[in-house]
Amino acid sequence: MATAGMSREEAEEYQRQLVEEKIERDAEFLVKKAERATLRTCLRDKYRLPKSEQDANMIQTAGDDVDVPEELLKMVDEDTTEEEQKDSILDQMQNLQNMDMDQIKEKASATMTELRTKAEEKCCVM
């Protein structure tokens, strides 16, 4: 036992400190879990995914004033900005201008030829 060689008062003090440290660690852990749940909730809202009852309970247990760490919020915001840029109409139009139509036609024609050949191999009527 860790209290061997200690007086009764020292042992009691040591046990009290252990209990206080455990309470602090548990509180910090609860806050971290709530922060993660908050981030998952933000991502679910962003991607229109179904809400999680477990995350809602975790946030409620820790208190509604839980904030997501700044680093994680920055990552989510950067992803959102990139996706908005990709989804914009102007960006899509620029992609159309950069396309090589001849290459696309060749690829489509090769695919159709390949499909026709495979169909003829499998079907006696064709």
Please tell me about this protein's structure.
This protein is mostly helical. It has a domain at 1-69. It has 5 helices and no strands. The protein has helices at residues 8-46, 53-62, 70-87, 89-98, 101-122. Helix 1 (8-46) packs across helix 2. The protein is elongated and about 95 Å long. The protein starts with 7 loop residues before the first helix and ends with a helix. The mean pLDDT is 80.
Topology:
Elements: H1 8-46, H2 53-62, H3 70-87, H4 89-98, H5 101-122
Helix pairs in contact: 1-2
Largest sheet: none
Q: Enumerate how many helices there are, as a single number.
A: 5
| Approximate shape | elongated
- Annotation, overall tally of beta strands: 0
| SSE topology string | HHHHH
Low-confidence stretches: none
Helix share bin:
over 70%
Mean pLDDT: 80
Helical/strand content category: mainly alpha
By oligomeric state, this entry counts as: single chain
Primary descriptors:
mainly alpha
TL;DR?
It contains five helices and no strands. It is mostly helical.
